[in-house]
Specification:
Radius of gyration: 12 Å
Largest sheet: 3 strands, antiparallel
Number of helices: 4
Structural class: alpha+beta
Order of helices and strands: HHEHHEE
Number of strands: 3
Distance between the termini: 22 Å
Length: about 70
């Protein structure tokens, strides 16, 4: 889902589904270029290129985000 640059992570989660915003815990973020260079999410994680961000993280161009939530 395309999300405008600068949207806070919690609000960006709402773009996918309102429950994701309501139960937002954290965002796991990796950059698109890093994913392409390393070839997989697992390799990004192993290389320490995936970071954890909170609800007030402003989404940047090229971010790939996995939303962790609980409802």
């Amino acid at each position: 889902w395309p999300i405008p640059r600068g949207t806070l992570a919690r609000r960006a989660a709402r773009t996918i589904h309102s429950d994701l915003e309501r139960g937002f815990i954290r965002a796991e973020v990796m950059e698109y270029d890093t994913l392409v260079a390393l070839g997989s999410e697992a390799r990004c994680r192993a290389a320490g290129k995936m970071r954890q961000e909170g609800r007030d993280y402003p989404v940047r161009d090229g971010d790939i985000i996995t939303v962790r939530f609980n409802i």
